[in-house]
Design a protein that fits this description.
By secondary structure, the chain is mainly α. It contains five helices and three strands; from the N terminus they run αααβββαα. The longest helix is centred in the first third of the chain and has 21 residues.
């Protein structure tokens, strides 16, 4: 049993010691971000030009990142086989749990595996719809979740977009 006293702990200098510019999204900002991603899909479909599948994939990846709390690298290495059933949450079907095979590694150690339970039904619905209706249209069934040989490129775009903190819709 660990006991913390003033004499054996370090004081916090500030309430939040991280970069104040790198704060988490508020719920409103997050909803605007997802709405913007969905609007990009609708805009691409309406214009009947290339890019609708990629926009749909990217919007789904953003929801996966948030819905399962994934890191950028973890997302770039995801595959459909990483999803599995959770007997305690049958309502999510085959997307009840996510096996993260390439989790954060400690110094000098291989990536750590972890399982993340599904808790957000809207995220599960987004993945299910993408896997069943959009991913097959890429024509690369043996490739990762992103559904194309350039899956890493799509996930890299997702990383840079999330990293740049787009919170305002143009």
């Amino acid at each position: 049993m660990a006991i913390a006293h003033e004499w054996n702990t370090l004081p916090h200098l500030q309430d939040y010691e991280g970069d104040p510019e790198a704060r988490p999204f508020t719920r409103e900002e997050l909803q605007r971000f997802f709405d913007y991603a969905d609007d990009q899909v609708a805009r691409a479909v309406k214009s009947k030009r290339k890019g609708a599948l990629a926009a749909y994939r990217d919007a789904t990846l953003f929801k996966v990142i948030y819905g399962w709390g994934l890191r950028r690298t973890e997302t770039s290495k995801l595959d459909v086989v990483d999803f599995g059933r959770n007997p305690k949450a049958r309502q999510f079907g085959r997307y009840g749990t996510l096996n993260v095979r390439y989790g954060k590694a400690k110094k000098g150690r291989p990536p750590r595996r972890r399982n993340v339970l599904s808790v957000m039904d809207w995220a599960v619905e987004a993945v299910e719809d993408y896997v069943e209706n959009v991913r097959p249209r890429f024509g690369f069934p043996d490739h990762p979740l992103c559904g194309s040989p350039n899956a890493g490129d799509a996930c890299s775009r997702a990383r840079s977009t999330i990293g740049s903190r787009h919170t305002e819709t143009p």
